[in-house]
């Protein structure tokens, strides 16, 4: 069988294979809560991919059966309708057509920018397409939102000429759009694309723009949009700090590399902390659900997802020298094996497989011991067990590592040894690099102390003076946000003006210097309050 014949046969089998894949995808969606927040694949994406393959193959077949023209420079169009809509400046028709074919958007995307170029006014065409598709309707589908982003991305590539009238239309559109954003990343993504294309950054408050950037931080376009929005190094550093402090560590990694901040932040330690956090999250899932088999499976799935994401980043950023990649891959394999064992145990424990009733032995009145009388599956794990480089306890089975030693009850049916109950930092283990507390850009212990003193200052028995409060405010803002980025308030806003001046006065301090000075100032105020209380 020739290669074209093999491909043709495979294409014929697509529908059957799609049905099987759809069933598997539905099973995956049933456990969506266990997946990483960055997992945003939809079935329409997969379906569009299959449709694109079919369309491409039909083109190849037509090229084989019909001899090509003697001289040609144009590639046959899969979607000639796009150019027809654009040449006729039918924006509403273009938007409706793309929404109706949203499941094929991956094959539409390569031809979209060129089609838009063929219009007499690309910017007006795209505005017509979005407005005509009722961009502000709450009932608008997620597929429609993806189409709007696709249109705006193509318009960025076209680099259209913008008139005052077009920018005013876009400003009105953006003002209405932002009312529907809320906490929805898809809405924020479309809004920021509109702001970038029509140069509307100055129309909206920078604080609001930054909130939307943070909202889409897990989207692949986040760093690109941040650059096109003109965010400078200081502002992006503030975004990275916020991402780190809110647990969006892998999103922070993208910003650190795209904006060349590896001299200020330490990507390796961020990744190691991400691994540690995933381990702790898995433990919490099990503890909250009473260490049931279902909870064990959920915990393992969460940890596997996090570990695979970290391995992907390590490979993309060439950080293999900082990690033992073989150990990470081996840990993935061990978790997969663990998942298989707990799944099998769950099946055996299901009502479809009830335990057999014990029989009397040889006619005597002796019966099999009850479950509480049977000896444990493994020796008491408190005796001589050690934590391995993955934070697992070595089991009695060679080459198999499971938490707490019991391969049949991995998350706590057998009591956990004391050493495994302590937090296991990746930096403190063989194979993961550093032998110091985890750090992003400053010691974690100092961050914890800073946060503790930020809470303690609220408990002072005597209110600090206005001057002391302004010093605390300036140091706190410098430590958590960085140098002041707003303009000085007017003379009629005396309070806000004083706070701005206090922040501006310490803008030369680094983050760790500002934290250290803040801690020192709080300690001084607490000592003064204690001395005042003792004297009275």
TrEMBL record:
**What Pfam families has UniProt attached to this entry?**
ACBP, Frigida
Q: Which N-terminal residues, if any, form the signal peptide?
A: none
The protein's UniProt keywords, in alphabetical order, are:
Coiled coil, Developmental protein, Differentiation, Flowering, Lipid-binding
Q: Which InterPro entries match?
A: Acyl-CoA-binding_prot_CS, Acyl-CoA-binding_protein, Acyl-CoA-binding_sf, FERM/acyl-CoA-bd_prot_sf, Frigida
Annotated region (Disordered) at 344-375
* Ranges in coiled-coil conformation: 7-34
Top-level taxon: Eukaryota
Identify the residues that the record assigns to the ACB domain, covering every copy. Answer: 446-531
Q: Where is the composition biased (Polar residues)?
A: 364-375
Give the UniProt family note.
Belongs to the ACBP family.
Query: What is the official name of this protein in its record?
Result: FRIGIDA-like protein
Species: Brassica napus
């Amino acid at each position: 069988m020739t290669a074209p014949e093999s491909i043709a046969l495979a294409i014929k089998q697509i529908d059957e294979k799609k049905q099987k894949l759809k069933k598997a995808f539905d099973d995956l969606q049933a456990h969506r809560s266990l997946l990483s927040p960055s997992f945003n694949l939809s079935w329409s994406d997969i379906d569009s991919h299959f449709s694109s393959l079919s369309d491409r193959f039909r083109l190849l077949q037509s090229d084989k059966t019909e001899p090509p023209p003697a001289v040609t420079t144009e590639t046959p169009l899969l979607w000639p309708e796009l150019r027809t809509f654009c040449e006729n400046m039918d924006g509403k028709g273009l938007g409706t057509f793309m929404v109706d074919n949203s499941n094929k958007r991956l094959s539409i995307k390569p031809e979209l920018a060129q089609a838009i170029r063929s219009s007499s006014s690309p910017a007006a065409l795209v505005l017509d397409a979005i407005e005509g598709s009722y961009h502000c309707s709450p009932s608008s589908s997620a597929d429609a939102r993806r189409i709007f982003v696709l249109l705006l991305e193509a318009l960025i590539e076209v680099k259209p000429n913008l008139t005052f009238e077009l920018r005013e239309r876009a400003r009105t559109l953006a003002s209405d759009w932002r009312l529907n954003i809320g906490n929805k990343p898809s809405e924020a993504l479309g809004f920021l694309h509109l702001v970038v294309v029509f140069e509307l950054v100055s129309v909206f408050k920078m604080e609001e723009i930054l909130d939307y950037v943070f909202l889409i931080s897990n989207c692949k376009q986040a760093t690109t949009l941040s650059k096109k929005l003109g965010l400078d190094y200081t502002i992006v550093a503030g975004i990275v700090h916020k991402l780190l402090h809110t647990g969006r560590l892998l999103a922070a990694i993208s910003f650190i590399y795209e904006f060349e901040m590896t001299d200020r932040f330490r990507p390796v330690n961020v990744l190691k902390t991400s691994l540690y956090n995933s381990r702790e999250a898995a433990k919490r899932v099990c503890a909250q659900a009473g260490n049931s088999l279902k909870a064990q499976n959920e915990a393992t799935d969460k940890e596997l997802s996090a570990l695979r994401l970290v391995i992907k980043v390590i490979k993309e950023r060439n950080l293999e020298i900082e990690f033992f990649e073989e150990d990470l891959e081996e840990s993935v394999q061990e978790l997969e094996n663990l998942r298989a064992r707990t799944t099998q145990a769950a099946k055996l424990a299901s009502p479809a497989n009830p335990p057999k009733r014990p029989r009397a032995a040889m006619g005597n009145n002796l019966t099999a011991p009850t479950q509480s009388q049977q000896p444990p599956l493994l020796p008491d794990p408190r005796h001589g067990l050690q934590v391995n480089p993955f934070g697992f306890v070595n089991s009695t089975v060679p080459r198999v590592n499971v938490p707490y030693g019991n391969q049949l009850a991995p998350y706590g049916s057998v009591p956990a040894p004391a050493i495994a109950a302590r937090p296991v930092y990746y930096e403190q283990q063989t194979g993961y690099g550093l032998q110091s507390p985890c750090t992003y850009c400053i010691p974690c212990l100092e961050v914890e102390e800073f946060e503790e003193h930020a809470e303690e200052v609220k408990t002072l028995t005597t209110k600090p003076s206005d001057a002391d409060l302004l010093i605390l405010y300036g140091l706190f803002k410098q430590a958590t946000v960085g140098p002041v980025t707003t303009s000085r308030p007017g003379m009629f806003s005396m309070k806000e003006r004083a706070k701005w001046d206090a922040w501006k006065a310490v803008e030369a301090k680094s983050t760790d210097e500002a934290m250290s000075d803040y801690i020192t100032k709080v300690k001084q105020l607490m000592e003064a309050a204690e001395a005042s209380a003792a004297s009275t």
